[in-house]
Amino acid sequence: QAKLMGRNTCVTFTPDLEDKVARRRHVEESVVLGLATDRFEVHFQPLIDPTSDQVAGFEALLRLKDADGSSISPSEFIPIAEENGEIMRIGAWVLEQSMRAASNWPEHLFVSVNLSTRQFEDGKLVAQITHLLKQTGLAPTRLELEVTESLLIEQAGNVSGQLDALRDLGVQLSMDDFGTGYSSLGYLWKYNFNKLKIDRSFVMSLGESDERTQHILDTIIMLGHKLNMQVTAEGIETKEQATYLRSLSCDHFQGFYYGKPMPESELAPYLMDNTVLPLLEGQMQDKSL
Ligand code: C2E
Ligand code: MG
Ligand code: MG
Ligand code: MG
């Protein structure tokens, strides 16, 4: 029996591995050529203020178009870009695109950009962001930077010095995917983040009438507020999830229920459909978003 299974696994394993190697090579090539061939695009997903039901800001999420028009997921290409170092150029490009876009939005909207640990390695990030703030004219308080705990675990370069310098610029720092890593609590205690984003796995398991999930969410939100952080719930897909979270005084909601990541050209129509028209009249039309 064992021998038979062994042989079977072996037979299917080889072609799988070849597929994986070919796929990796393909993605790697797309990543390397992506900027030059205009294959990257930044999409924006709304964050909602649940007390007013209005859009508070957008998270920038990178997209890579494949030659056949399909899309390669960032969960697949970001790790590859991190490995081969392309993330340095790509990350700088995402920052520039996002900050430029946001500088044309109404002033009450922020933009949130994901940073990879490697972007802290060469010690140039603070200067880069300082330069972009000046160039785009974006108010620093309207820029939010999302990092995950892997940054704090790996300690590439002088991470805490760079985080301090970013905070001194007036930029908001956000801890992304909170609750899934190893020692989140220690990092929250040690570093001052402005925001906490609860990983969507917790929100996903809401609505299965699981009291344990509710207690975890209650507790994370309370902890965030006690430490002076705003708390975002990610991955809200259903009305039931939104309804439950409403009872918990989250500061921001994010998820397909409110809006998927969309290209810049769709932001103005989205904002108008979402009853924020009075705030935006004049402002959005002028800027040809
Ligand atoms: P993230 O920063 O946690 O971003 C949220 C992810 O959850 C996005 O996936 C978003 O599309 C997805 N999402 C949002 N709402 C829902 C929902 O209701 N249901 C479900 N199932 N998913 C939802 P995406 O765009 O595929 O990005 C995946 C990850 O790739 C991001 O996770 C982030 O870690 C990374 N990433 C994306 N763009 C960039 C970037 O420009 N730079 C870096 N370094 N990483 C990026
Ligand atoms: Mg994020
Ligand atoms: Mg996240
Ligand atoms: Mg995530």
Automatic annotation (TrEMBL):
<protein>
    <submittedName>
        <fullName>EAL domain-containing protein</fullName>
    </submittedName>
</protein>
<feature type="domain" description="EAL">
    <location>
        <begin position="24"/>
        <end position="275"/>
    </location>
</feature>
